[in-house]
Amino acid sequence: MNAFIYCFSSEWLKKKHSAAAWLTLAGGLFVPLILLFARLNNKKELYASHTSGQLWKTLYTTGWQYMGILLLPLGVILVTSLFIQVEFKNNTWKQLHTTPKSFTALFFAKLAVILVMLLQCLLLFNVGMLLCGMVPAWIYVQIPLPKESFPLLMYVKGSLLFLMASLPVLALQFLLGLLTKNFLVPLGVGMALYVAGIIGVKWQYGYIIPYGYGALLFARKPGVDTTILITSWAVGYSIVFIAAAYLLYLTKRDKA
């Protein structure tokens, strides 16, 4: 455990020197800021929305449609690919492997840092959505605070659901990042699979493409519990991809 904590701390420091940290911040706040700007520029509808009793539900649906379908999967692709490439870019794999830490600790520490960045992104998104509903009332005196209280449980459940949908994307990008020194390869494959996932949303077997899970969570198919279907496949894919990446990392002769 001490070895893992040491490795995690070291990897956490590395993220400060990559674009991944800034992408996490921008990805979490981008949608709430856009929605807030749009609301502030549509003052006529603010009073009605704040007194409707449906403000938080409306913001939740609108916010996650943009975040879950577009920004979250693309952000995971970019952040994971960028973070894995830090060692290749700085040519520090050999230096890393000379430290008295096991490959297992190093592997899962890197994976954990990316997962924590994903959690940070989701936390920033939820805080941003809360501010998106509150700020207009702070700026315009005639606009009351939202009639209903903030449904924290609904937002937490939604975040966990989209977190699950993102895990196979993170795991596969992690695997692809370990396979090649060329940043464009995992990025290109990830983007191609994302496009395939979006195109396959209306396909009967679209759930076999994990990059479209964010969009599939909004799809309604008769007689199918989309949530259970997607989370089950997401867990299965994540386990398979992480196991494959772990075995690759342990057995790869040239880890530099």
UniProtKB/TrEMBL annotation:
Keywords on record: Membrane, Transmembrane, Transmembrane helix
Membrane spanning stretches: 20-40, 64-86, 107-140, 152-176, 183-208, 228-250
Keyword Transmembrane helix attached: yes
Pfam families assigned to the protein according to its UniProt record, in alphabetical order: ABC2_membrane_4 (PF12730)
CDD domains recorded: ABC-2_lan_permease-like (cd21809)
Official protein name in the record: ABC transporter permease
Organism, as annotated: Filimonas zeae
Lineage: Bacteria, Pseudomonadati, Bacteroidota, Chitinophagia, Chitinophagales
